[in-house]
Every structure is written in C-alpha cells, then in structure tokens.
Write a structure and sequence with these properties.
Layout lengths: L1 H4 L7 E4 L5 E5 H25 L4 E2 L11 E2 L2 H10 L1 H10 L3 H15 L3 H34 L6 H41 L8 E7 L42 H4 L4 H17 L11 H53 L3 H18 L4 H5 L4 H17 L9 H10 L1 E5 L4 E3 L7 E7 L2 E6 L5 E6 L4 E2 L2 H7 L13 E4 L3 E7 H10 L1 H4 L2 H10 L1 H23 L9 H15 L9
Parallel strand pairs: 2-5
Antiparallel strand pairs: 1-2, 3-4, 6-13, 7-12, 8-11, 8-13, 9-10, 9-12
C-alpha cells in the first residue's frame, strides 16, 4: 500500500487549461493522498515499535543447531538500534518527506515559477526515499519467508503478489512520465514566449494551491483554469499535433490539463503497463538527454520485470498445473500402453475409471509418501486423526485400548477400489485385513454344485479376518491363509488396509490383549466367513427339519433321496467350515 500511494503525489500537479496555461497544485487530491500516507506511516511506526519487543536469534548460537532466542528487553533494543538495516533504515523510510515537500516546498516554488527545480526535487525524492522503501518491502518479505518458509500460504497468493508488483511498477513509470511531461509543457511555453517580441509569461496560476473538486465546471474566474478569463482556442503547447517535439510525452498532453482525477491516475498507469510490457517498442524519444535516459530506464525495467515477475508468475502457474499435467501424462502413457498391448475395451474402461477415482480421492498424491518423513510422533498423531474414528467403528477393535489403536492407525494405509473390481478371490492368499470406509463389497462363497452364499459388507465392515487366526495360531505357520470367499466391489470403494506383517507385529507385541477370550468370540461373531457358514447350516437344518416333520409315514421311502441329499450338502459344507485359533 505504501508503494502504491507515494506516486499519487505526482498527480497533484496539474496544468490549468485556459488562455495562458499555468501550473498549480490540486490541494484536494494532495490532502487525500497525505491522509492515506500518514495512516500508512502510523502502521509502519507500530511495526517499528514491535521490533523493540521481538526476540532475535543470537549469531553466536548458530554454530550448533538452529540458534538461541534472546529474550532480554534491553539486549533486543540495543541489537535493533545498532543494526544499520534495523532501526535507522526503518525510521528513514517512514520520514514524511512527500508531505513536507508538497505542502511547504512545492507551493513556494510554484509561486516563484521554478518548474525545473520542482521536477528535480520530485525525482530526487523518488530516488532517495521511494527506492529505499522498495528495498525495505522486499527485505521484510524475505524475512517473513525465511521464518515461515513462504510469504503467503497458497500458490495463488504468490501469483497475485507478483502481479501487484508489476502493476505498482507500471504505476511508478506512469507517474514519472506524467511529471516529466509537465516539465516539457513548461519548456514549450517558455520557448513560445521567447519567440514573441513582448511576452509577459506567468507559469504559476493565480492560486498555487487550487481545490479543483470544490469548484463546479465552467466557473467564471476559476483560478484553476488559467490566467485568462476569456475563452480561447486550445494553446499550441497543449495541442498533440502542435509544432513542439514532445517525443514520448506526446500523449500526456490531454492528461496533464485534464480536470478528472480518474483520468490523471488511470491513463499514466495504462501507459506504464503498456510500455513495460512491450519493452518500450512504441517509444519515439527526441534527442533531449533526460528523455533518452528515461526511455532507457523504461526498457531495462521492462526486461527486468518481465524476467523476474512474469517469470515468477509462470512458475506459480506451472506449480498450479503441475498435478494436472502429471495426471494427463500418466493417462496418456496408460492409453499408449493399453493400445500397444491391445487390451480389450472392458479392461481399458476399468483402468480409466480407477485412475479417475484415484485422482478424485487423493489428487494424484500418495498420502503415505507425504507423511513418511515426518517425525514419528507427528506422523502418529496425523494418522490417529485420520483413521481412529474409522478404526473404532470396527466391532473387532471396540475392546482394545488406545495404545493398540494408535499402533494400528500408524500402520494402516488407504486403498481405493473401482466398481466391479475383485479385491480378492476365493482360494487366494490373504495379504491384508481390509476395513471398509466408503462403498459396499459383496462376499461370494461357493458351496457345492453351483450353490453360492452371498452377503453384503457395508461401511464399518471388514474382511481378511483369516489373518487374525493365522497370527494367533501356535505353532506359527509362515504360509498365508487362503481366502474362503471372493470379495467384489458393488460400487467405488475406499478402505484402509492392514498388511499381514503389520498385523503379526501388533498381535505379537500386544499378545496379552489378543489372547482375550472375548476378543476371540467377537472376531468369530463378526467374521463374514463364519456368518456365511452359520447361515447356510441353519438353512440346511431348517429344511431338513421341515422335510422330516411334514412328510407322511407312507412316503418315507419316496423322500429318502431328498433327506439323503440334504445330509450330503450339510456334510460337504461342514467340511469347509472356517478354522481359527479357538480350535
């Protein structure tokens, strides 16, 4: 804000349009800018006062570790005052130089018609206070970045910060262009006066400080309208097509004589933005030395700003689009590979659906990779926050204490399954216990002669409980247990998985808890395998009972085959009854 306000002082100077153009200071605009600048200086003074309260890192303590903070108030104040870039530099950039110059110096110089001296003072004020203020702002942002690692929290803030810096640079270039164009108008007026035999030139208006916004348009005797009350044609020195060579200040003539504050501010900003963006390609300077130097500075500034600021904006945009670009490259590579291997359309569609679901869930990032390098305690707390509520929904873990739950949360990893995907097939080795977070999974278990027992697992359910029996069985067998059912996703499913080696570590380390009889019964009660086995046996027993009680005595021989078949089915199913550590 401070960098954007200072160039507004330039627009307080204006050329009165009338029979004889004259220079005056717009007191209304100068007062508004002065109030804003004073408020910003007050904020800066508050910042300066805070520096006497902020601890600093002792340089001597940086030899080992990250340094030691000094908390003593006197030591902090002495360190801040002794620092050249500390107190004295902060106090220098807050000095009210523009306010003093515009309210005490400029009106007197306008009265004395020292136009060249006014422009010299304004440019020196720009060089010796505005440029140090730019350096001060950059240093402050670098200190923020050194402490926090960033200036603002998001990439879009970095994009906006560089765009604002480019806009302020255009604002400063336009302000300097406006001031230098007033000097060229004064030079034109003097040159015309010298060509006349009798000339009484007065470059200052009747009132050197004129409150333009308080006077209605067309006021007779308007002190801001020039030194003549008669209406005359446009002066030659304010004519764009006039004989005087204005060079790069040609299009500033309507602006310096305009009574609209909006035009005075916006048009120079537009000119500066256009000139810096095109590296001064449209500039046609005259041979005047100051104009040539100003043109050279504009070209070099445009190149530097484009290299630094626009380059940074491109970096920020690339960072924003990096993940999306990564996803596009991965999809393109997958499409090329599927086409090369001539995969059928059904498999291709499943691959595309999985990739889109994985991108929608995790944004193309692996959560475990993001947190694996964090300190163990911090990583455990993060995983506890993410997984604890979901793990507690599993009935198998209701009776476990927080220590065991923390170890489980620290070892689970997120899984994503697409629709119609077979997570594990019947007979395959079970590699992990899967806890369903979102979605539904169908369990299918073959019985005999085409008979299939099915059940639906909702969020909060789990499968792969064969691993729990495998971990608790003694003597221990290294061979992984086989899955007793096929699990297929009915819809897109998100889950957490606990690998076999991690589950074995937990059960071995906390064996006193897993040897609990209640936990064993709970595992059997909520196991999808045991539930399926029990349901089918109840159905077979019920059918056998109904056949035995409802048939007539004379039909014993006729229905003997049906009873034999039911007994056969029950015997066959009992032979594949799930086995666990309770037996």
């Amino acid at each position: 804000m401070a960098l954007a306000v200072d160039p507004l002082f330039f627009y307080a100077l204006s050329i009165g349009r009338g029979g004889s153009p004259c220079l005056y200071m717009d007191g209304g605009l100068a007062a508004i800018v002065t109030v804003i600048r004073t408020c910003l200086d007050a904020v800066h003074l508050l910042h300066l006062w805070l520096q006497f309260r902020l601890a600093y890192v002792s340089r001597e303590s940086l030899v080992v570790g990250c340094g030691k903070l000094v908390w003593d108030a006197r030591a902090i104040a002495a360190h801040y005052v002794r620092s050249v870039k500390g107190f004295w530099f902060d106090a220098f950039v807050v000095l009210p130089v523009p306010q003093v110059v515009f309210w005490l110096v400029v009106p007197k110089l306008i009265r004395e018609e020292q136009i060249k001296l006014i422009m010299t003072i304004l440019l020196l004020m720009f060089l010796f206070q505005f440029l140090p203020k730019v350096y001060h702002s950059i240093s402050l942002m670098r200190r923020m970045q050194k402490v926090t690692g960033y200036i603002f929290g998001t990439i879009w803030w970095g994009f906006g910060l560089n765009l604002i810096a480019y806009f302020i640079a255009s604002h400063v270039a336009g302000g300097c262009w406006y001031v230098l164009s007033i000097q060229r108008v004064a030079s034109c007026l003097r040159q015309q006066c010298e060509q006349k035999a009798s000339c009484n030139l007065s470059l200052s208006c009747s009132e050197e400080v004129c409150y333009q916004f308080l006077l209605p348009t067309g006021t007779v005797g308007n002190p801001c309208a020039g030194n003549s009350t008669t209406v005359m044609r446009k002066p030659l020195c304010l004519d764009v097509n006039g004989p005087f060579p204005y060079g790069i200040y040609k299009w500033a003539l309507p602006v310096v004589s305009s009574r609209s504050v909006t035009v005075k501010i916006l048009y120079p900003i537009f000119w500066g933005l256009m000139t810096l963006s095109t590296f001064g390609n449209d500039l046609e300077p005259t041979s005047h030395w100051l104009e040539v130097i100003f043109s050279i500075c504009l070209v070099l500034s445009g190149l530097m700003l484009f290299t630094l600021l626009i380059g940074n904006i491109q970096v920020f945009l690339h960072a924003v689009m990096a993940k999306k670009r990564k996803m596009q490259l991965r999809c393109r590579d997958m499409e090329w590979w599927m086409k090369r291997r001539q995969l059928p359309s059904q498999l291709r569609q499943r691959v595309r659906h999985f990739e889109h679901q994985r991108w929608a869930m995790m944004g193309g990032e692996d959560e475990m990779e993001l947190v694996k390098d964090l300190p163990e305690g911090l990583r455990r707390d993060i995983k506890r926050f993410l997984c604890l509520d979901l793990i507690k929904k599993v009935p198998l873990f209701h009776s476990l204490d927080d220590l065991i739950l923390d170890n489980i949360c620290d070892r689970v990893k997120p899984l994503v399954f697409s629709k119609d995907e077979k997570i594990i097939r019947e007979g395959d080795p079970v590699h992990r216990v899967v806890f369903i977070v979102r979605g539904r999974v169908k369990s299918s278990q073959n019985l005999s002669k085409g008979m299939v027992a099915t059940s639906i697992l909702e969020p909060g359910g789990f499968f792969g409980d064969e691993l729990l029996s495998w971990c608790l069985r003694r003597p221990f067998i290294d061979r992984l247990p086989a899955s007793s059912a096929t699990f297929t996703c009915i819809e897109s499913t998100e889950a957490f998985g606990l690998d076999a080696n991690h589950l074995r570590f937990i059960t071995d380390h906390f064996r006193y808890k897993f040897a609990n009889e209640r936990l064993k019964r709970t595992a059997r009660y909520y196991s999808s395998n045991w539930r399926t086995w029990a349901a089918v046996n109840i159905q077979l027993a019920w059918r056998r009972y109904m056949v035995r009680t409802s048939r007539p005595v004379n039909q014993v021989t006729e229905n003997g085959d049906n009873d034999h078949r039911l007994r056969k089915y029950a015997a066959m199913f009992l032979s594949i009854r799930p086995h666990d550590h309770l037996e």
